[in-house]
Every structure is written in structure tokens, then in C-alpha cells.
Amino acid sequence: FLSHSLQAKMSRPVQARRLEGIDKNIWVEFVKLAATYSKVNLGQGFPDFPAPDFLREALTRTLSGGNHMLHQYTRAFGHPPLVEVLAQFFEKLLGRDLDPMTNVMVTVGAYQALFCCFQALVDEGDEVIIIEPFFDCYEPMVKMAGGTPVFVPLRPNPPKDGKLMSSADWQLDPAELASKFSERTKAIVLNSPNNPLGKVFSHGELGLIAELCVKHDVLCISDEVYEWLVYDGKQHIRIASLQGMWERTVIIGSAGKTFSATGWKVGWVVGPDRLLQHLRTVHQNSVYHCATIAQEAVAQGFQRELMLYGKPESYFVQLPKELQQKRDWLVQSLDGVGMKPIIPEGTYFLVADISPFKSDVPDDPNSNEPYDSRFAKWMVKNKGLAAIPLSAFYSEAHKNNYTNFIRFCFAKEEATLKAASDILQKWKQEKTS
Ligand code: PMP
């Protein structure tokens, strides 16, 4: 009798309903595949070159210095030296006064910043507009908050002159975008520069989004983790600086991307207190507090950058210069083997058209997995080269419209990029011989 009642109890679902349909995560799968099979990993977005000396030295100083309190808790919403320097930095960037205690909050990477935004601002039944292709966590995070994601795609317009496509050729259709806004819309997620395409939204495009946000009283969750990685003299424009947007925008940033130290997991949000006060409520009831030592070292990194702002020695000037060369190199080498690259205006990602290589990969008519996903798995297992399928950055409904592309990360040492290029060249030779 006892064992029967125990069994009956155990047949209840153990998981909360909010987890339904969000259990799959492509990174878990592809990171494992890359770890098992890849010789060259251009998949997940992290640099394989060292973080800058000044940052590593700051961490060493922090550890070995006399202040043993840096091993203890600090302020829950951000270590004071870090929120203070972030406030000073963003005052410069946004041209407005900021209060470090109410306009800035430190998080465990940009990822937790995003989670705080959705939990704090999105209610059951609210709609959140997401521009496709998108950094994949936005969708499950909206759903976990009880919201409904509404997708609007960037539409590719290939140049007619046979030139390589640029991320700027992927554009929103203004009428389509406008049609997604309604009284149910609570927020739009903007990610410029965009992962995976590397698109840097123009002033005109941001103006269109801003106008719709103001008209429909919609919030903007602005993921700007690649703010310093912009090429060809382009400028990253902050939507919060457009008319009517500061009061409705949360800016999200990441020390991981900014200082090439993704493992540190230090991120932040900058925005008006009327929004940030609710993010603080989520933060204090979940993570509460981020690692003090990492925050202290990032604060020192920002103090250096504040001093060198705009100067040639600034890391925020040097890093994009170096990455632009890596981008150009990878563009050339992909173009050389016929894997047409879409030239990114920003970020350290590059999307390439795999059409000419697709025929090498066996088709499986019984599978409903998008073809680019099977292609990427085949490529890492058979060629040792890891990349991420573009369909991973689309909603379920639109996944099958974009299965001709894979995303490479080019924040890599020259030797890594060269090894990738060698694999592709050998592959091409095998195809033609
Ligand atoms: N947003 C975007 C667009 C990203 O690409 C990433 C990292 N890949 C994040 C947020 C998360 O950043 P972090 O590592 O600081 O949590």
C-alpha cells in the first residue's frame, strides 16, 4: 500500500509549467560537439587570444593587494567603484547626468541583465517584439516571464552588382515592423550591433524603432554588448540618446565582450531609475550579488579606458582595429573557397552562405532538423571545423526559411583562422578533384 502511494506521488510532473517548451538550448549541444570533435572552433563567441595585460594586471593587483575586504560581499547592486566609473563613462556616451546608485546595476554577465529585464518588465500575456535573427536566449526568457514573443525578420536584399552582401543589406520592412506593435506590446528587444549578422543599425532604422516605441508607449531592451566592435569607421548609435527614448530604454553591456574576458561574467544595465528599480527587485531576490574581485578589476579597466578615451592606446580603439583585420582575412578566405560571406559591420561574428558545400552533406528526408544544423554537425564531425547554424537564431516558425547559412566567430588568433582556412581549402580541393 505504501509503495503504491509513493509511486502515485512520483508520477506528478516535477517541473514548473513555465519551463514547458524551453528546455532545449543549442549552445549546450553545439559546445559539446565542438569539445568532442573540433580541431578548429569558430563556433561559440569568445576570443582565444588573451585578455589585455592591463585587465589581467588589475585582477592580480586586486588579489595580491592589501585590501582583504575585496574577498567579501560588496554592494548588492554593484561594487561602488564599478558603478561609479560606469556612470562616468556612460555620462560621456549619452550626454546626460547619471546617478551611479540608481541608473546603473551590475549583473552576472549581460545574460543575467537580460533575465532581470524580462522578469521585471514583462507580465503574463504581454507581447515582446524580437528582431530575427536574434541571440537565442531572448525567446525562452520572454516565455519564462509569461510573455509572448512576436518576431519580425530582417529581410536580405542582395546587391544586384554581384558584390558580396553586407550585414547592412539585411533590413526591417517599416510597414511590417509597424504592424507588430499593438496595445499588447510591452517591449522590443534591440541588439545593435547584432549577433549573429553583425548588423549595426543606422540612425534611420533606430529612429523608426524609437518612433514606434514612443507612439505605442513600448519599452526598449537594448542589448549593446558589442558596442565597441564596429568597423569601417561606422558609429554605434545608442537608441537611448534618441528623442523620447531614455525614459523607456534599458542599455545592457558586458565586460566579457568589452575586455575580451567572457569567463569573468560581469555585465551591467544602464537606464532610468523608474525601470531599474524593478530590475533591482529581481536581482535582490535571485542572484543578489556578483563576485567582488571581478567587479573591482573591471572597474580598474574602465578607469584606464576613461583616461584614454578616444586615444590610440585605448583598448576600445585598438580591439576593433585588430578585429577588423581578422574579419577581412576571414572574408577573403571564405570568398576564396566559395562560401560567400556576409560582411559584418560590427561584432566578431560573420555569417556565410554554405550553398555550394551543402551537396557534400547527406540529406535526411525523415529529419525535420533544419539543413544548416545538420550541416554544422556534419562539418564538425567530418572536417573538425565548428560553426553555428543560422537557423538557431530564428523562431521555430521561421527556422526553415534560413537554412543556407552558418555563423563563424573571428575573435581568434591568426593561427586559428589560418587552420580554419586550411580545412576549407582542402575541402574545396577534394570537391573539385
Ligand atoms: N547578448 C548578446 C547579443 C550576446 O552575444 C551575448 C554573449 N554571446 C550576451 C548577451 C551574453 O553576454 P555575457 O557573456 O556577458 O553574459
From TrEMBL:
Its cofactor is pyridoxal 5'-phosphate. One of its GO terms (cellular component) is mitochondrion. SUPFAM superfamilies: PLP-dependent transferases (SSF53383). Keywords: Aminotransferase, Lyase, Pyridoxal phosphate, Transferase. InterPro entries: Aminotransferase_I/II_large, Kynurenine-oxoglutarate_AT, PyrdxlP-dep_Trfase, PyrdxlP-dep_Trfase_major, PyrdxlP-dep_Trfase_small. Residues 39-420 form the Aminotransferase class I/classII large domain. CDD domains: AAT_like. It catalyses: an S-substituted L-cysteine + H2O = a thiol + pyruvate + NH4(+); L-kynurenine + 2-oxoglutarate = kynurenate + L-glutamate + H2O. One of its GO terms (biological process) is kynurenine metabolic process. It holds the Pfam family Aminotran_1_2. Pathway: Amino-acid degradation; L-kynurenine degradation; kynurenate from L-kynurenine: step 1/2. One of its GO terms (molecular function) is kynurenine-oxoglutarate transaminase activity. Belongs to the class-I pyridoxal-phosphate-dependent aminotransferase family. Homodimer. This is KAT1 transaminase. It comes from Loxia leucoptera. The gene is Kyat1.
